[in-house]
Design brief:
It is built from two helices and five strands; from the N terminus they run ββββαβα. It has helices spanning 54-68, 83-91, and strands at 2-6, 9-16, 19-31, 35-45, 73-76. Strands 1-2-3-4-5 form a five-stranded mixed sheet, with helices on one face. Strand 4 (35-45), helix 1 (54-68) and strand 5 form a beta-alpha-beta unit. It starts with a strand and ends in a 15-residue tail after the last helix.
Length: 106
């Protein structure tokens, strides 16, 4: 994994030689609900590389980073329409712990 830092967000890149196979953007933060946690902003794998372990490798790497930072949890939001992604997250041991509400203002 290669890590890139940009402002408060950080990025992990899963690559095979020069070809990028997956990307995860994350940040470490703290709030009253989760305590210190690693939040995954984006987790994307090359569509042709799905079910080949790229997403799992990124998730394992993120979990290692979270544990090393003393985080209590790794968290993310996922759109309700992304049922295939949800199956992956459940396989990775994630659980639905809350609803994310949004009210458009513009």
């Amino acid at each position: 994994m290669k890590r890139v830092f940009a402002g408060g967000a950080r990025m992990c890149i899963a690559a095979d030689r020069e070809a990028v196979r997956g990307v995860a953007v994350y940040r470490i933060g703290e709030n009253t609900f989760e305590g210190l946690h690693l939040y995954v902003d984006d987790l994307v794998t090359d569509e042709r590389q799905r079910s080949r372990g790229v997403g799992r490798a990124l998730m394992e790497h993120l979990q290692e980073l979270a544990q090393a930072a003393g985080c209590e949890a790794a968290t993310l939001d996922s759109g309700t329409q992304r049922t295939q992604a949800h199956k992956f997250y459940f396989r990775e041991g994630m659980v639905v712990s809350s609803f994310h509400f949004r009210k458009p203002l513009k």
